[in-house]
Amino acid sequence: IKKNSKSSSRFMRWASGGFANPQSRMIAVIVIIMFIGSSTVLFTRAASPSQTEPETWQRVAMAGSDGCVKSIDDLTASEGRAIEFACSTTTPGGSTGGNQDHDSHASDNCTPGIGRLGTMGPCINRSLIPAARPGVSTVAFDQTTPKRLSPPAVWGGGEGEPGAFRTRCDFSHMNNDDAVLYQNQPNKAHLHTYFGNTGTNASSTSASLKNSGNSTCSGGTLNRSAYWIPSMIDTATGRPLAPNDDRSQYNSDLEIYYKVGYQGIGYRDIKPFPNGLQMIAGNPANATTAPSPARNGSRPVVYYCEGAASNDRTRNREGTNIPVCNSGEVLVMDIDFPQCWDGVNLRATNGRSHVTYGKWHNLNSGETTPISEDAGCPPSHPVSLPHIEMFVRWRVPAGTNTSNWRLSSDNYTNGPGGYSGHADYIFAWEDYAFPTLVTRCYAAQQDCGYQLGDGREPRWIRFW
Asked: In what order do the strands lie in the sheet with 171-175?
């Protein structure tokens, strides 16, 4: 923060300390505002002053016709503190940092339209946070006829691929909580976008989620799990963007695959998720152009653009930053979760150390010996779980593109948005779901689609 000139500082001290009564002091504040010139700064009295407490004027609004962000300290008469200014040098969509107020959500107190400021994330206009969705309050199935099992699938990659189930969820709500990293500490985190359980907050646990809250996922409360990501922000307006994809082949905001996967794990080894499990994919602190690869050599989070009417990847095939997707196209955030659990800890302080990635067998068709001798789960994390892969989709509004889009966790000064991509997960399915999937889909090497493998298909209900 830059100090004013000596003359203006003397003027401020005279104005704030040179009058003996509140009426005169208000006149001084008006003079200060006139002195500032083109900027508009509004003040209000924080409380009625007493003989023993200093009189304090607090900022309640700020604006600047020149596009600068004005950061204003509390003005305390007894201390004669001067108002201080901070102007960002950032241009729309740029990456040069400035200064911000350091309150609990500093990214909210800046001016949308000038890009991200400093190291506190994008500007967020909280009045534009989308409304929460109600979800479904009961377990809901559509189909009760058992699906005819097909011969075991062979996908060309050897053992470790066949066996899959997928489900869909819609956007639920947004908040500044993080029950994995900041348990019981509300409003501690950057803004998050949630799917699944509509009641997820800072105090949520696997047990509390399983016993309360509606769900925006297929099957209703069959799946009360919590899935969340850093919110996508249009920095041109400060608007948090709810995921949305109305294309017929997906028709959901979030597509989730639970499968044997590509991490070198045999279908016979898959175990159901333990109750209480929570974990993070990706690193929310990452700010580099090349996030560290997982043990299997892949990136935990990648992005690409899909066509307006199809899932054809039009640009940036699996890049580590947000690409420029055009009007009508769909931005996809593809997230891979760790698949190997240490068998003991259901959570970790950093959300990640109790789980890790398996290593792909790298088999060619017809081969039976893995090229990598340490394929699959490592000895430190020997329990193989279903592989979760999430696809979050945002349709780009007409007449715009994604050049100004950043994640709420993008707290770095250089480069495009998206490097800090990550996702959190707290398991909260009904107890019978995954034992059924393990038997009917994974062990049977079946692509079960949207069914549990026993004929029951969780009902899909959209909320818009």
From this structure: 171-175, 192-196, 226-230, 422-426, 278-282
pLDDT tens per residue, range 32-56 = 334 333 333 222 223 333 333 332 2
Q: How confident is the model at residue 95 (pLDDT cuts 50, 70, 90)?
A: very low
112 vs 322, residue with greater confidence: 322
The pair of structure tokens assigned to 28 is 């001084």
Residue 354 to residue 8: CA distance in whole angstroms:
57
Band of residue 291 on the pLDDT scale cut at 50, 70, 90: low
- Between CA 104 and CA 99 the distance in angstroms is 15
Q: Which amino acid is residue 303, in one-letter code?
A: Y
**Three state DSSP letters for 103-123:** CCCHHHCCCCCCCCCCCCCCC
Beta-strand ranges (E) seen in 126-269 are 141-143, 164-169, 171-175, 192-196, 226-230, 232-234, 239-241, 254-259
Q: Pick left, alpha or beta for residue 8 (phi over 0 → left; psi -120 to 50 → alpha; otherwise beta).
A: alpha
The pTM for the full model equals 0.73
Phi and psi angles of residue 143, each rounded to the nearest 5 degrees, phi first: -110, 135
